[in-house]
Design brief:
The structure is a single chain. It is elongated and about 65 Å long. A two-stranded antiparallel ribbon has the order 1-2. The two termini are about 35 Å apart. It folds into two domains: about 60 residues, no CATH class; about 120 residues, no CATH class. The chain is about 55% helix and about 5% strand. The chain is mainly alpha-helical and about 220 residues long. It contains eight helices and two strands. The longest helix is centred in the middle third of the chain and has 25 residues.
């Protein structure tokens, strides 16, 4: 913490010890784990003293989700509703996104090769000879075809299924529970959209799409 934040020594020490205790607890088994109790942290102070920055930096160091919420309007007893539940949804959705990005990085190399093959298919067709593909592959890697336009069938992120709301979880269609994705894959209703892009533009889109395919295969 000292490496990233100037001042607030007591606060940094307190949050560091709290995080260390949680880590220690994770390393223990059985009865010993119960002897190391994790504690939540409450930081109090005027605006601008570094509460948010300490929290954000701690989350980054621990590779944990961070959500900043203005909770003043939620302090009334018995207050419920979409805004309050959105806090919980964000806390669940952010780590899911973080984990998916990590897994995408793990399959990045394979996804890049698969994306390259799809670009080659769009350029020369999937029936072209190996020598033709190799010649175009060299041009592709040398950047000679970056501005050339190609046509691709890409997954339609909008989906074609109606939006549902989960009973007891208002607004679930907004993020945490993506029923369009779940039902679309289960029913084989994943739709594609024909798009025209330059080779350079297509790479990022194709790499994400191929990464997701590889992740689905591993699941």
């Amino acid at each position: 913490m000292d490496r990233y934040i100037v001042g607030q020594g007591e606060a940094k020490r307190a949050v560091a010890i709290a995080l260390r205790n949680r880590w220690r607890r994770m390393q223990l088994d059985g009865v010993m784990r119960e002897e190391v109790m994790p504690k939540n942290i409450l930081m109090i102070g005027p605006t601008g003293v570094g509460k948010t920055e300490i929290s954000r930096r701690l989350a980054r160091l621990a590779d944990a989700p961070f959500v900043k919420v203005e909770a003043t309007k939620f302090t009334e007893v018995g207050y419920v509703g979409r805004d309050v539940e959105q806090i919980v949804r964000d806390l669940v959705e952010i780590p899911l996104t973080m984990m998916r990005e990590k897994r995408r990085e793990a399959v990045q190399a394979k996804a890049e090769l698969a994306a390259e093959e799809r670009v080659l298919d769009a350029l020369v067709g999937d029936t072209a000879s190996q020598s033709t593909r190799d010649a175009f592959r060299k041009k592709l890697r040398d950047g000679e075809l970056a501005d050339k336009e190609i046509e691709l069938d890409l997954t339609d992120a909008g989906g074609g299924l109606p939006t549902f709301e989960v009973p007891g979880v208002p607004g679930a269609q907004m993020g945490m529970i993506n029923l369009n994705d779940m039902l679309g894959k289960a029913l084989g209703a994943e739709r594609t959209k024909h798009r025209r892009l330059t080779v350079a533009e297509s790479y990022d889109v194709l790499i994400v799409e191929e990464s997701d395919k590889l992740l689905d295969e591993e699941s």
